[in-house]
Amino acid sequence: MKSGAAPIRGFTLPEVLLVAVVLAVLLLLALPSYQQHVLKAHRAIAVAELSELAARLDGFFQDHRRYAGGLDELGMPSDPYAIDAQGQPLAVSDARRVYRLELRLKGNGFLISAHPQLAQTADTDCAVLSLTDYGLRTASGSAPASHCW
């Protein structure tokens, strides 16, 4: 080593390990909260899609004096169909799906449902969201429907 040269500076192994442990603990604390926010955001997209379908069904009823026999009559790609995390329609077998939407006619009314798919099935608070022609909003999960809608 030359005299007058600046000493080499850096971090010691214990310092680097301490930072890595602190970051890992922060990640473990933040990840579950982030995952819950993602589930809630996907649920909000399904709620919006159900409301849009109900409006389309009501409009179809006004024009034809009957409810549509299937979602494809409302301009959707198929019956049932799926939506992705941005609310875009997909095939029910697409790997990007987060909800599968289906229509069931009941007498002179309807029931439309959004069934969670793939990672969204972790949303046990709300699970299947449903909306009837009377505007009744339900959720099959452990939380009350008002929490989900």
SSE pattern, N- to C-terminal: HEEEEEEH
Name the poorly predicted regions: none
> Domains counted in the coordinates: how many?
1
Helix content: 25-40%
Largest sheet: spatial strand order: 2-1-3-4-5-6
For the secondary structure, the number of strands is: 6
Structural class: alpha+beta
Rg of Cα set: 25 Å
If you average the pLDDT, what whole number results?
Answer: 93
Quaternary state reads single chain
What distance separates the N and C termini?
A: 71 Å
Identify the overall geometry.
Answer: elongated
- DSSP summary: helix tally: 2
The portion of residues forming beta strands comes to 15-25%
Q: Specify the biggest β-sheet.
A: 6 strands, antiparallel
Features:
149 residues; alpha+beta; 2 helices; 19% strand
Write a concise synopsis of the structure shown.
By secondary structure, the protein is an alpha+beta fold.
Describe this structure as you would to a colleague:
This protein is of the alpha+beta class. It has one domain. The protein contains two helices and six strands, in the order αββββββα. The chain has a six-stranded antiparallel β-sheet with strand order 2-1-3-4-5-6. A hairpin with a 5-residue loop joins β1 (about 80-85) and β2 (about 90). It is elongated and about 95 Å long. It starts with 12 loop residues before the first helix and ends with a helix.
Secondary-structure map:
Elements: H1 13-64, E1 81-83, E2 89-90, E3 99-106, E4 109-116, E5 129-132, E6 137-139, H2 145-148
Antiparallel strand pairs: 1-2, 1-3, 3-4, 4-5, 5-6
